[in-house]
Amino acid sequence: MAWFDVPSDNLYLFEQVIVLLSCGLSFLGSLLIIFTHIRWPELRSRPRQLLFFLSVADLFSAVSYFYGVLRDFQTSSWDCVAQGALSTFSNTSSFFWTVAVALYLYITIVQSQQSLAEHMVYWFHLISWGIPLVITVAAVCLQKIGYDASYVSVGWCWINIEAEDKLIWMLLTGKAWEILAYLVLPVLYLRIKKHIGRAHRALSEYRPILARAPVYQPRATADKKLIFIPIIFIFLRIWSTIRFILTLCDSPAVHNPILVILHGIGNSFQGGANCIMFVLCTRVIRTRLLTMLSCCCCKSAGPSDFRESAVSDGYASGYGSIEESRSGSSQKWSPHLAST
Fold it and tell me: Any idea where this protein resides (predicted)?
């Protein structure tokens, strides 16, 4: 391939500003998810715990991308390698955690195997942290991470453009897992949505009054969220895949400013998108945040201690809710999300 022979262009100032803003918003979004998870333990559920770990990966991605775009590397300096290693690890880990959340929901809702899903959590940690770590360490030790002339990045460092086997390492350190997620996520979430729809219709057949009651309004919102998860993921990530394909084809369109900006936003804004969906668009958490902000603004001395009805029945979650039986320690999955 001849693409590493073409000299790179520096990022335009407006490209840097837009992508840096996206990184900053993603950092704040991931931080807000982490904060709400720690601040309100009664709102935790297993899916939200997985979202917490996903947000940790997205947080490190945002930080590494921010530094890379700010520096706009021109050589494979030591900080270029360090930034490339951090972004490779966190970005690959984010792919695995995104699929892990979908797989957990699928096993719990569709397969109705709560114990299996709980057992899988340990494997999720091993795979989602372990595999990216092994790949990143191998890439650093073999000197595969470095300056890539912004062909498949936006100023940050990734796979060294001069490496002879760069295509294999680009696939191994991100693109293969990214494309796999494109295929797996829509299938899992569509099956989850179909299962919830069938359960709702079956219940409505025997309980038509409850089917018309407002209690099922959150379920409709939950269905929309489940559909938006793969849609948003694919929409954000597809631009980097397009630039990757253009790079393989030696197309000059790989440096198109609009495509570069979309790539930069897509790779860095995952944390911000998750925050919008599962914090700002989740009524229980949004209400608590607004109440806390109101108390801070008014300098009120009394703590905010209200309870949502959804919380009193079970643990609220942006993905779903788990009700714990008072008579024992067994858990029951409820196919609707918390009110949003």
Answer: Membrane
